[in-house]
């Protein structure tokens, strides 16, 4: 097995499927089955999901709302998505725990690092909701921070595209894909992999990142087996 403990980062938008907003239950079930597959292989899986399919703090600020207020609303959106994924995983027969950076005792555990690690050791999937619990930090940063805290082997960023390109492949047909790329090259070329805070955290803590297409069934398993999928950001 290439990796034994991973942090999977999913965007809120990925849960929409072909919808304009909200959650596509078919897409959610597909993700749950892929996570189940690698969990049954013995991989310890932690997940962080964004909330962009429901609400974004930055959008709220553009509409005249206080940024801090908007960011907290965005954190609550990530908890809704996390609960949806937890439900899909449990329906698929996967034991799951949801931990939140904001206390919500009726629906999830508070984030406690040692408890999260214990859940992972018992082969439970752990979902981290509510970002870092602080405004002005993205869910990319939350994913990186949690990955470092639980000593994950890698951050897997599941997206709609199959890796990192020299330009946006949806806009520039001549864009070329990188199989591997260094952190320094990403900085030098000005490529957008994660927000700068999250990316720098990975670099400073020597935590590799793989950007891949989560919507292609089997990709997650292939990565666990060491196959070349997406783009690896390494040292």
List keywords for this structure.
alpha/beta; Carbamate kinase; 9-stranded mixed β-sheet; two-stranded antiparallel ribbon; 11 strands
Task: Give the arrangement of secondary structure elements.
Blueprint: E1 5-10, H1 25-40, E2 44-49, H2 57-62, H3 67-91, E3 96-100, E4 109-110, H4 113-121, E5 125-129, H5 139-149, E6 154-159, E7 164-165, E8 177-178, E9 180-182, H6 183-189, H7 196-204, E10 209-213, H8 219-224, E11 231-234
Parallel strand pairs: 1-2, 1-6, 2-5, 3-4, 3-5, 6-10, 9-11
Antiparallel strand pairs: 7-8, 10-11
Gist of the model:
The chain is an alpha/beta fold and 235 residues long. The chain is built from eight helices and eleven strands. It has a nine-stranded mixed beta sheet, with helices on both faces. The chain has a two-stranded antiparallel ribbon with strand order 7-8.
